[in-house]
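for ur thesis appendix - Maleylacetoacetate isomerase. copy paste whatever u need, i formatted it the way the template wanted (i think)
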Amino acid sequence: MASEKPILYSYFRSSCSWRVRIALALKGISYDLVPVNLVKDGGQQFSAEFKALNPMKQVPALKIDGITLSQSLAIIHYLEETRPNPSLLPQDPKKRAQVRMIADHIVSGIQPLQNLGVLKQIGERKMEWAQNYISSGFQALEQILQHTAGRYCVGDEVSMADLCLVPQVANAERFKVDMGPYPTITRINKALLELEAFKVSHPCRQPDTPAELRA
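the 3d part is after this line
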């Protein structure tokens, strides 16, 4: 039934899941959360049950309106098209393109290179590897944001770009990336973390957050 409550398959620390949790919170969509632990039991995303939901064996996946979607940006675009308020894309086509550019920069150009599956293959050099790719991505992003930013990534309205930025900064902090060279990224991230939707969706406040990481 299309009227059923959406179900989000999420892992508290997954930056891709966090993007979708922010979108759901901003748009006031209530949902049920099913935790998928990416580390326990060799990774619950590899179970036959989850593979049937998302053949890519990754979170997030969202069951909504009678369909199951994976890939965070595809999910966010669907939410934007079916539940347009508040909007996560600016009206102006140039600003809209900038939002998509920044989002793609993060979701294609930075995050996949430091994802769990890649780092497993890298082995003991994983910290250095992750720092290297996040830093080179942030150097470019800092430069872009100096041209596009107002209070947030593009102007003064929260957009899809911001939904991608905050989780990526959290990853950077987890991998001990020096944020000193990125004052614009740091400033925007701080402003966004003051917003309720970013707080309730935060990894430290999820049903599957381990007790020692809870806020």
